[in-house]
Write a structure and sequence with these properties.
By secondary structure, the chain is mostly helical. The chain has a single domain, classed as Aldolase class I (TIM Barrel). Helix content is 46%, strand content 11%. It has 6 helices and 5 strands. It has helices at 10-13, 28-38, 51-61, 79-85, 93-97, 102-117, and strands at 16-18, 25-27, 44-45, 67-69, 89-90. The strands form 2 sheets. It has a 3-stranded parallel sheet, with helices on one face. Helix 2 (28-38) packs parallel to helix 3 (51-61) and helix 4 packs parallel to helix 6. It starts with 9 loop residues before the first helix and ends with a helix.
């Protein structure tokens, strides 16, 4: 978990802290991202409701650690914005599952992702 997407997430993940090996003060989620890279994590979770956080984490992780982005549709995050920000995988569960037309919703999300990739 690098940064979550729920409303209260910034109270923990975005807190400004001092890095243990320097006097630099940075948001906690940047330390988590650096740890994910150093530990060669299989993936990093970064909430999609704040695409700017995905962009910051992508700059740290590059292509070394994929980013999984929850919060798509159900928490108001845009699939297109998350992909453009650097998310590698979208977590969309409720946006499809709770839809009155799940197949149509899935296709709409797929089309948005495809338009972001072009």
């Amino acid at each position: 978990m690098v940064h979550m997407s729920h409303k209260g997430a910034s109270q923990g993940y975005s807190r400004i802290v001092m890095e243990s090996d320097s006097t630099e003060k940075i948001p906690q989620f940047i330390i988590f991202a650096k740890n994910a890279l150093a530990w060669k994590a299989d993936g990093a979770v970064v909430g999609a409701t704040q695409p700017n956080n995905i962009t910051v984490v992508k700059q740290i992780l590059g292509e070394n650690v994929p980013i999984f982005a929850p919060g798509i549709i159900a928490q108001g995050a845009s699939p297109k914005d998350a992909i453009k920000a650097g998310a590698d995988y979208l977590i969309v569960g409720r946006g499809i599952l709770l839809s009155s037309e799940p197949e149509k919703s899935a296709k709409k999300i797929k089309d948005e992702v495809n338009s972001a990739i072009k």
